[in-house]
Amino acid sequence: MTTSDYRKMFTQLDAKPVKKAKYIKHNQPKKRSCGIGLRKCKNCGRNGAQINKYTLHLCRLCFREMALGLGFKKFS
After folding, report:
1. pTM of the entire structure?
2. Which of 4, 26, 35, 65 is the most interior residue, by most CB within 10 Å?
């Protein structure tokens, strides 16, 4: 379950606090200490294909959009 799906249910469960507490306990995303799920793109929040070199923390798609502005240039 994605983070956005997890938060959408809050509007429906606001009327039932006991069920909301149970829902939060069992459906919140796991806290990550390592692995691919720990690193997210600073720009769009995507998990995969990260460029962490030079502490960029961008996914490859956001990097392609921002590369010229960051001072990178294409060789080919």
Report:
1. 0.57
2. 65
